Amino acid sequence: MIRAVFLLVLLMIVPGRTTAAPVRVMVAANFRECLQVLAEQYTERTGTEFKISHGGTGQLYAQINAGAPCDLFFAADSARPQRLVADGWATEQDCSTYAIGRLVLCGLKPYPNPDGNMDVEQILQYVMRQETGRLAIANPDLAPYGRAAIQVLQRTGQNEAWQDRLVRGQNVAQTWQFLHTGAAPLGFVAHSQVMAAQLSGQDIKMGTAIVVPLELHDPVVQQVVVARNAQPGAREFLAFLFSAEGHAVLRKFGYGMPTP
Q: In the chain, which segments carry CATH 3.40.190.10?
């Protein structure tokens, strides 16, 4: 009996292990793969487990508003986290920018130009001239990367011409699938998706992948917010994400870092 009690005590004090409930995380589709890598590294180090749900930023925000349990919300914008602060779900101190997202124009084939590679505007014009030309974007009402895509069309003077030829995904994950299934030969997705595919060794079969110049759309400022009643593991994980080691993972996935 004494031996059994002794072994139980030893198991309870093994460093780097925890019996706490999993940290409940909601994450925008563009950040899912990167977060998974960070969570796996953190779990290996501390024993902390995660329960991760992903989707469009607007969809996840609606779920939180409807009472879905969540400790951490990694959004693809700053508007929804700020609304949660205004609603009292979190404090201003628990809302911060974790990454700057980059938009990429991807195509199923290369688009050559006698004078060199085409830029974003030239490719859009070239595909528009084709009868089968379709352009995949995330739903701009729900997904920040979709709003950024619309801004690119507006700033290149092509928004009206493309309106009847857009294929809209609920989020950038679905937009990515539209490209792979051939539903659209061209699409605006997150740079992190392209990097995640490359890092995992996937054969993404993309002929074109151009990081869209920042002057063509507003910055995609991505914020994370911690619930008022979040378990301690949530804030401890954020400390890891904001460390030099965490930032190295974000850069590997193509994210820009917020200005200190």
A: 2-100+220-252, 103-216
